[in-house]
Design goal:
By secondary structure, the protein is α+β, with helices and mostly antiparallel strands. It is 29% helix and 22% strand. The protein is built from 16 helices and 23 strands. It has helices at residues 15-26, 51-71, 78-90, 107-121, 123-126, 132-143, 156-168, 175-186, 207-222, 227-244, 269-276, 286-301, 350-353, 400-404, 423-427, 587-593; strands at residues 189-191, 194-195, 365-368, 373-377, 384-388, 408-410, 433-436, 442-443, 450-454, 457-465, 468-475, 480-489, 493-498, 502-503, 509-513, 517-522, 525-533, 537-542, 554-563, 566-578, 596-598, 602-607, 610-616. β22 (602-607) and β23 form a beta hairpin. α2 packs across α3 (78-90). It is elongated and about 80 Å long.
Amino acid sequence: MAIKQPVSENALRTKEDLMAAFRQLTAPLTQLYSTGGARLEIRGAGAGHTQEIADMEGFSRISWGLVPYLAGGGEETELKEIYLRGLINGTDPGHEEYWGEVGDYDQRLVEMAAMGLALCLAPETVWYPLDAGQRRNLYNWLNQINVHPCHDCNWLFFQIMVNLGFRQIGEPYDAPQMERNLQRIDEFYLGNGWYSDGIGGHSDYYGPFAIHFYSLVYVKLMENEDPQRCSIYKERALLFAEDFAGWFDADGSALPYGRSLSYRFAQSAFWSAFAYAGLSSEALTPGVVKGMILRNLRWWFSQPIFDSAGVLTVGYAYPNLVMAENYNAPGSPYWAFKTFLVLALETNSGFWMSAEEDMPQLPALSVQAEPHLVVCRDLDSGHVAAFNSGHLGTNAHTHTPAKYEKFVYSTRFGFSVPRAEWGLEQASADSMLALSERDQLFRVRRVNEETWISGNVLYAKWRPWGDVEVQTWIVAGLPWHVRIHKIKTGRPLTAAEGGYSLAAKQEQQIEKAGNPGLSVQNTFGESGVCSLRGYTKAQLVYSNVNTNVLYPRTSLPSLLAELEPGSHLLISAVCGAPAGSRSAPPLEEALVSLGITRTAQGVTISREGLTDITVEM
C-alpha cells in the first residue's frame, strides 16, 4: 500500500493552502531535531561531507520555507521555537552543537545563504529576540563567509545573501565583496535571460532556482538603492521566463534535466521569486505564474517521494540513490522549500488575489540556443521533449553524460543513468548512442568538440576514443525525430542506439519491423526505433532497476550495429508518444513532415527558409 503524506490531499488553491502544505511537510521533522535544535538528524545514506555538516544542512534548508512562512503571517508553530533555539546554539562556540569553524569551499557556506534570507525577511524572529551575546555569535559565525572563498559559480550569491542580511539589520557588511561577486556573476550571463553556472558551465536549474532566484530577492530588497542593476535583473528574468515556461508540461511536471534533481519542486522556485519581485507580463500574468507554481507542486505531491514517516527522500520521482549526487545528504531535498518564497507576499497581493490560470500559449518548437536546446511540445498531451546539441565543457559531478549529454530529455519518458559498467542493461543508455569495443563496456558522449543548432536540426562532433570521431545530426520533432551519425573509427565497435525509455508493465505489446525496428506499447504510451540505414538488429533492452528518474522499471527499444574500422553512416527514426497524445503517424508520413528525403548515399534535410543539409557517405 502506497504511503500518502497529508500534503497529497491538499488542494493547493489559496495562500492558506500553501501555508498548510508547509506545516504538513514539516510536521514529521520536529521529532528529528537534536536536543539543542541545531541539527536536523534525518538518517539515511551519507554524503561527501560529514554527518555533522549534513545535519546542519538539514537545519538550514528548512528555513527556505520557514522564513517566508513567518514573514507572510504564518501561525506560530513548534518549528519556530526549535529553529530559534538551534540558531542560537549552532552559532555558540561554547555549545556542544556549535556548527564549527568553516573552511574554503565548505558546504556550510552554501547553507549560510538561507540564514541571510532570514535576516532580510524575518529579523523579528531571528535577530531581535537575541541578546547581545547571541547576536554577536550569529554575526561572527555568518561573517566567516567573507573570509573564505566560494566556488566560482552560483555559490558567489551565498556571500551576497549573507551580506544583504547584515545590511538589513544594520550590521557591518562587506560591500566590496558584494560588488565583486555581482560583477563576476554578470560574466556568467549568456543573453536572452540565460546564465551558465560559472564560465563554461551548464545552463540548467541552477539558473532559475539559484542565480535568477537570488537576483530577484536582490531586486525586492535593493531596488531603491541599486535601481540600475535591479532593472537589468528584472529585464533578464522576463526574457528567461519566456523560455523557461517551455520546460513545464501541461500536467504540472517539469523537464528532468541536469544535476541536483533531488531538489524536486525547487523547479518552480523561479516562479515564486518572479512573483515575489512583482514581475509579470502580458503572457505571464500573476494568475498564470500562480498556476505554474501550484500545478508543479500538485504534480510533485502526487509522486511517491516521501518515506513512511512523511520525510522527503533523496531521488526524483521516487526514492533513488542511483541517480543522486555525491553532495546529496538526507536533508538536501529540502532545498525545494525555496518555492515557498511566495508565502512572504501579503494575502491581498496581486498574486494571491488572482485566480489561477492555465499555461500561456506556447509554440510547438522553441530554439533555446543558450542552453543548447530545441524544446518541442506536443500540443495535445502537453508532453515536453528538449533536444540537446551537447556542450563543449564538462564537469566531475555524478553521471554528467546522462544528465547533460543525452540527445533528448522528456517530461514523460524521463532519462536514465547507468547502474554499472557491464552491458546495455546496466548502461541504460536511453536517448544516446552507446559504443563499445565489443567488450560490453559502453562509452557515450561526455563532451563535444563542436556544436550548433539551425532551426530544428542540432549538430555535434564528439570523440569517445582518440581514433573514433562521431558527427551527429538530430532532426527534432514529436512524436518522431531522426538521428544521423557519421562515424570514422580506427577500431572495431558495437553501436547501440537507445530510444526513449518506457515504464515497464507486465501487459505490453511489442511489435517488430523488418528494416529492422521495434516498438513497445502499454498504458504509459509508445516508444519505438526504426533503422533507416546501417543498423542490423533491433532489441528491447530491460534496463537495470532504478536507473530511470521517473520510473523504477523501464524497457528500452534499441538498434544495434557492428562497425569495422573505417567510415559508417547510421540513421534511425525514434518515436515517443506518451499516453494522452495522438497515435504516432506512419514513419514515411513522419519523415515527410520532418523534411527528410532518403538518398542512395544518405539523407537530405529540407526546412522552409533554411539551407538544405545533406549527410552522405
